[in-house]
From TrEMBL:
The lineage of its organism: Eukaryota, Metazoa, Chordata, Craniata, Vertebrata. Residues 168-276 form the UBP-type domain. One of its GO terms (molecular function) is cysteine-type deubiquitinase activity. InterPro entries: Papain-like_cys_pep_sf, Peptidase_C19_UCH, Ub_carboxyl-term_hydrolase, UBA, UBA-like_sf, Ubiquitinyl_hydrolase, UBP13_Znf-UBP_var, USP. Residues 688-716, 756-799 are annotated as: Disordered. Residues 319-859 form the USP domain. It is an enzyme of class 3 (hydrolase). It comes from Acanthochromis polyacanthus (spiny chromis). This is Ubiquitin carboxyl-terminal hydrolase. GO terms for biological process: autophagy; protein deubiquitination; proteolysis.
Length: 862
């Protein structure tokens, strides 16, 4: 018999591998479904790729790859036998077969035992060889089988691998000298002190200088001012500002030329007003340790509908998603997405085509894993109601829990591993912001839908931004693409404002007298007030007026150029205090079931409005401006009263004159804000000089500042950077024009707008026409038509009426996005359903007023 088995396996020996260091063995879940060794058909593990397949999918892998030898794993789950005293007898057979296997033990508990079975199966004849079979199998096969059986779970193995390159503690951390210069870093609004860049900013831990990092090949980064600062000062350590969390931050040592650890990072940051220790105390273990914890308890009960007897539901569309440990943000977002027909059609409707054309490693294919999850949620296979015998058995045990029978749900472990790969936050086991993950997953859907249907098109809409120069009253209209609106929550508009003020007074009094705080009061804000705050004009920071050829005050208003099929509304509930502690605003908003936004449709340039010139900000340094402006014309009209009020505050006289001029004589308050925003500029206190370009003399093409109309060709150096990465020249020019010559955004545009084969004529037209024409069709459509889809250079936007109905919302419980829990409510078949991880029940009282992200679908015009 031994010789027979050896001869049988000889043709397949070259394809049988022993797992090496770095190989992942998928022996707990199928790559195409949620089948596991506990499933009826068990799991087949390929002995060459170590991928796992359920009974329905193993034949596909055999036909595609020709791999014939698989290890079949089957776990039989049985209830433990009970002894004479009624206690369970702990018993487990073949316990060493499935080491580190992660299955459904969270549901089995201690009342079940496992009987494990393993065997080799040779395709296509399904010849089976039971394991272990050391005497009869060749040595190589025995070693390979033993290695597979004892290999750790594929996902358990990832965590230590992510720390392969261990970061060392900096030798400067312990003895770092920090200057007592009074610098305090605000929680937001940072910009480079030398170039005003607002991305990739680093805080020097010695003197508190905020400067930009170096430029990267993908268009991100900065101008290297942080490194220049080190060369000038020899201050060695810097921390990246947008990476600071309660768990630490990204620290770089210029002297050691590598990323380092700083064990004293919290102390070093507190020197500049960033209180990490305080933030840690408030968010550790997901609990708030201050005296404001009581409203959160009520919030948990209301959102989860804890005090009600909720009826569990089963079947297609009612499958829960297991919580992998702080992964509820992912589960709620995906539940809502797969309740939208476009996502169902893209991934579940095309399931067989996606599976048939999947790559050799389907665990790394986005479309395959989305189709897998979508099928798991919509098929009903993993949300089956209990059979009659199981109900009778449960009634005999605990009669009062009959309605609490819960499904097992599906585990999104494979998809989470894929979509979070390389992301510093989503790849961790910490709680995350559901809104950030929603935008992340929409971006992945777009990138992976090149050349095919993009289901996230249903969220996309065009926004018209109207910017007005306060000095000249001229305007500029631009359009941008968005997929979500963020509603402010104006506390001052609360209907119970007197009650809030009284509570705040009592709270302060109790705090001063060391007494227990009063019962907290939740602010109740009308939805109309949030919408009004959203539509109000807002100040534009660092506004550069092309009419003045200088910085000035500007205001911006936003309106809808088009309305999406599905509207995402996020309520701005989270903010940062001055101490960097993330806080959640305790408020309730009466969000309506029906929403009419037609009055917010954009109107475009109005009669009597004068447009700002299409000029770019000057590239040259300020000294050229001062040289060219010596021939300035008559002195401008300036409100001297406002100038003197500001000068009495101690500001330089010339700075006050510039502030009043550039804010259009709108009063000392507006001018004061301008002063605060421009104090760091090198020419802050120099005399006000009007640029000579205001004279109707030379044309823009002869301008000494080198400005050019927006419709002209992008800078040649930007085009060269993109073409050096391998992108076609015409495509690079289109991308730069579509993103106002922003390299980082241009790269994203290229990835989401692949070049069409027939794009020669289009690209020629794009080289001669301004980018604004890409949106020209959108304004002329008010019916449900697919307006700009015909323009290959523009975004795919589906316009229609602005009337909507609420169909889903995601709620958050807890003090901040870094802690707490998410659940979602979705309206299906006229009923509200609550999805709380793997538990899916009919909702008795959906807490619409406490939601965080709301989803509306467009009503058909009648």
């Amino acid at each position: 018999m031994a010789a027979d088995l050896g001869e049988l396996l000889v043709p397949y020996m070259p394809t049988i591998r022993v797992p090496r260091t770095g190989d992942r063995v998928f022996k707990s879940e199928c790559a195409f479904s949620f089948d596991s060794p506990e499933s009826e058909g068990g799991l087949y593990v390929c002995m060459n790729t170590f991928l796992g397949f359920g009974r329905e999918h193993v034949e596909r892998h055999y036909r595609k790859t020709g791999q014939s030898v698989y290890m079949h794993l089957k776990r039989h789950v049985k209830e433990k036998a009970t002894g004479a005293a009624g206690g369970a007898i702990p018993r487990r057979r073949n316990g060493k077969v499935f080491l580190d296997l992660e299955l459904n033990r969270d549901f089995n508990g201690e009342d079940y035992e496992y009987e494990d079975e393993a065997k080799l199966v040779i395709f296509p004849d399904h010849f089976e060889i039971p394991l272990p079979n050391i005497e009869e199998l060749p040595a190589l096969v025995t070693i390979a089988c033993d290695a597979v059986l004892n290999a750790p779970s594929a996902y358990k193995k990832q965590e230590p691998e992510s720390w392969e390159e261990e970061i060392q503690v900096s030798r400067h951390a312990r003895s770092l000298r920090q200057l007592d210069n009074g610098v305090r870093i605000p929680p937001s609004g940072w910009k480079c002190q030398k170039c005003e860049l607002r991305e990739n900013l680093w805080l020097n831990l010695t003197d508190g200088a905020v400067l930009c990092g170096k430029w990267f090949f993908d268009g991100s980064g900065g101008n290297g001012h942080a490194l220049e600062h080190y060369r000038e000062t020899n201050h060695p350590l810097a921390v990246k500002l947008d990476t600071i969390t309660p768990d630490g931050a990204d620290v770089y040592s210029f002297e050691e030329e590598e990323a380092v650890l700083d064990p004293h990072i919290s102390e070093h940051l507190s020197h500049f007003g960033i209180d990490m220790l305080q933030m840690q105390k408030r968010t550790e273990n997901g609990h708030h340790t201050d005296n404001n914890s009581r409203p959160r308890v009520s919030e948990w009960e209301v959102i989860q509908e804890s005090g009600m007897k909720l009826k569990a539901v089963f079947g297609s569309g009612y499958t829960g998603i297991k919580n992998l440990g702080n992964s509820c943000y992912l589960g709620t977002v995906l539940q809502v997405l797969f309740s939208i027909p476009d996502f169902q059609r893209m991934y579940v409707g095309n399931l067989q085509r996606i599976y048939d054309y999947s790559p050799l490693d389907p665990t790394q294919d986005f479309a395959t894993q989305m189709a897998k999850l979508g099928h798991g949620l919509l098929s009903g296979q993993y949300a089956k109601p209990p059979v009659k015998s199981e109900l009778i058995e449960q009634v005999m045990k605990e009669e009062y829990k009959v309605l609490n029978w819960q499904q097992k749900g599906v585990s999104p472990r494979m998809l989470k591993s894929l979509v979070s790969r390389g992301h510093p936050e989503f790849s961790s086991n910490r709680q995350q912001d559901a809104h950030e993950f929603l935008l992340h997953i929409i971006n992945l859907v777009e990138r992976n839908s090149a050349g095919s249907e993009n289901p996230s098109d249903v969220f996309r809409f065009l926004v018209e931004e109207r910017v007005q120069c306060c000095q000249t009253r001229r305007v500029r209209y631009t359009q941008r693409v968005d997929c979500c609106i963020q509603l402010p929550a104006p506390i001052e508009a609360a209907t119970n404002r007197e009650e809030l003020l009284a509570y705040e007074a009592k709270r302060k009094e109790a705090e001063e007298n060391m007494r227990a705080p009063p019962e907290p009061v939740r602010a109740r804000i009308p939805f109309t007030a949030c919408l009004q705050a959203f539509t109000e004009p807002e100040n534009v920071p660092d506004f550069w007026s092309s009419a003045l050829q200088a910085k000035s005050a500007g205001v911006k208003t936003s309106r809808f150029t088009s309305f999406p099929e599905y509207l995402i509304v996020q309520v701005k509930k989270f903010t940062f205090g001055v101490d960097w502690v993330p806080k959640k605003l305790d408020l309730a908003i009466d969000v309506p079931d029906f929403l009419d936004l037609n009055r917010l449709r954009a109107t475009g340039l109005q009669a009597g409005e004068e447009e700002l010139p299409d000029l770019m900000p000057p590239i040259v340094l300020p000294e050229d401006t001062r040289d060219n402006s010596m021939s300035s014309i008559d002195s401008p009209e300036i409100d001297e009263t406002a100038v003197m009020q500001l000068a009495e505050m101690g500001f330089p006289l010339e700075a006050c004159r510039k502030a009043v001029y550039y804010t259009g004589n709108m009063g000392p308050e507006m001018a004061f804000n301008w002063i605060i925003a421009h104090m760091e500029e090198p020419d802050f206190a120099e005399p006000l000089l009007l640029p000579s370009m205001m004279d109707p003399g030379p044309s823009t093409s002869d301008s000494p500042l080198g400005t050019a109309p927006l419709g002209s060709s992008p800078p040649e150096e930007s085009i060269a950077i993109l073409t050096s990465m391998g992108f076609p020249r015409n495509h690079s020019i289109q991308a730069l024009k579509a993103t106002n010559n922003n390299l980082e955004r241009a790269l994203d545009w290229i990835f989401t707008h692949p070049e069409e084969e027939e794009s020669d004529a289009v690209s020629d037209m794009a080289d001669t026409e301004p980018n604004d024409n890409a949106f020209s069709n959108a304004n002329s459509h008010s019916d449900s038509t697919l307006s700009p889809d015909r323009d290959t250079t523009g975004p795919r936007v589906k316009d229609g009426p602005g009337r909507y109905e609420l169909f889903a919302f995601i709620s958050h419980m807890g003090a901040s996005t870094m802690s707490g829990h998410y659940v979602c409510h979705i309206k299906k078949e006229g009923r509200w359903v609550i999805y709380n991880d793997h538990k899916v029940c009919l909702s008795e009282r959906p807490p619409k007023d406490l939601g965080y992200i709301y989803f509306y679908h467009r009503l058909s015009s009648s």
